[in-house]
Amino acid sequence: MLEQLKDQLTSLLKQLPKNNLVCSTSGNISARDKTTNLIIIKPSGIPYELIEPQHLVVLDINGKIVEGNCKPSSDTKSHLYIYQNRDDIFGITHTHSKYATAFAAHGSEIPVFITETAEEFGGAIPCAEFVLIGDDEIGRQVIKNGNTSNAVLLKKHGVFTMGNSPQKALDLAIYVENSAHIAWLALQIGKPDEISSEDIHALYSRQQNIYGQ
Length: 213
Hints:
alpha+beta, L-fuculose-1-phosphate Aldolase, eight-stranded mixed beta sheet, globular
C-alpha cells in the first residue's frame, strides 16, 4: 500500500539525523496521500538507520491503523489533528534540533534577523505553550500558532513544521534550525535590528511566488 510514498518517507526520515535535527530515535515525519487521504508515519522507537518501508504505519485520518505491524509514533494524535484541520498540509516534520530547541527552552520566538527567515516563514517563528506529549494537545498548539509560518516551536520541547509535501516539511525544519543558529550567533554580538514587516512581506511574497522553476 502506497509503496512510492513509503519509499520517499523512508528516505526523508534518514535525512533527519544526517542534518543533525534529531538524536537517537527522537522526532518523526509523516505524509498524507493526496488520493486516499491516508497517513503514513514513522514507527515509535526504531533507530533511523534501521527504518525500512515495511516498518512505517499507515492510518486513516481518524487514527485507525490500516497497515503495519509496528506501533506508530507517540506524536501520531497531534499529526492527525493537524491534518484534520489543515486541508493544504501533506507532510509534517517534528525535530529536536539544538539551536531551535534552545529558543523553545526559553519560550522565545525566533526573530526575523535575516532574509531567509522572512522568505521561508513570512515572520518570526512563533513559540507555543508548553503541553505534554501523547494526545493531540501539541497538534492543537501547532494549529493555533503556525497557520502563517507553517513552523512552530514547542516550549521546552522542539519544533513542528508543515508543508504541502513531506519534502517541504523537512526543508522547513532545516530552515528553522539554520535561522535559529544564525539568530543565536548574532545575539552573541549584540541585539540585531529585525527586518521591518513591510520588507518581510515583500521578501516572503517574492520567495513564494517568483523564486525557483
